[in-house]
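tmp note - GGDEF domain-containing protein
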Amino acid sequence: MSQSGPILFVSNADRPPFVAALDEARLFPVVDTDWASAARAVEEVQPAAILAAMHGGHEPHMAALARKIAEQSPYLPFVAVDAAGTLPHNALPFSSRGGNPDRLIARLRAALRVRTLHATVLRRLPEVKVALPQGDPARDATVLLIGRGAAYPALSVALGERVGVVGALSIEAAAKHLNTRDLDGVVLAEGFTARVTDAFLTVLAEDTRFRSLPVIVTAHQLTQAYDLPNLELIPGEPAKVAANALPLIRQHAMEAQLSRTLRSIDAGGWLDPRSGLLTAEAFARDFAKAVEQTLARGGGLSVARFAFDPGNSRAQLDAARILSRLMRQMDFGVAQKDGSVIVVFAETDFRTAHMIARRLSAVMRHTSNGKHEMRSDPVVSVDSLSPSDTARSLLARLSADASRAAS
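out:
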């Protein structure tokens, strides 16, 4: 992969063999610095990524280096090698076990793809009126937690305080979530044999949809290599697992956020980069046109409204992303300010729309957040276009139906 700068290697000791191999392979030219000079070297070298050895002497300088890296634009990957404690929010964990440089090369390439995507979005933003989403990407992330051991409840809480969590007590249940949701990470906890773990990781590695997904294993040593660049073994207490998994999850959430922003730019700004659905203005335009054409030509048109507690904005966002993933190409939707999500089913009668809405609603019920979990089950209402309808009257009736259903 071509890059705009070298790799900056930060250490107070000599290069380990796996880092020297990067330079020798001429894939990533490496520039060395010590911890005391690291923050200044970021300014002078303008690296494409930072690789830091956490082997002592880094403690007084770690926070300053992390802040300097976080200030850079586009995204500057920061990989922390063999960290023993909790990492800064932007430091990606990497264990050098086995000394295999191929794992490190894969990790760096995956991170550099996010950097390239960020640079592309920044370059294209002036083309249309699209706002780059602000704030921590991790706040919108969703993680699949798979496990059934004693640590599962504590892991669920530790992760849920930081991101949305979808729980699965079996590999079969996990597979369903992988196929229906946009996930930003998988945490495979205890409760499975080494053979089951190996089979699950092999399946993930063979599916290109999941190859860049962060996969955190907490309970097994990995006996072989997998084509999963962001696979990491993080044992320990649930709070440590969650904290050190979060940087990888955050990077994936940022990549997904940037990809949605790029799609919005390609669509002329009519897609909402956060939800993946249409903006309110674009929805109003397309819905009015769809109603007009259906009344003129005949056929069916149905609308579903998924209403959530207005105080649980995360449930609405999760639902919007599920819908943007599972909707048919001819359908379209919008996330509204009142906490609901509306989806228009083109060429669909009431009975079929009701069946589709019920299935979509079932997928939405599994995400939790933290200790104080809010109910995320949507109140669903479905209606169809009648010959006397306008776009406004159909939406008004749909909202009235939802109010009656909620009361």
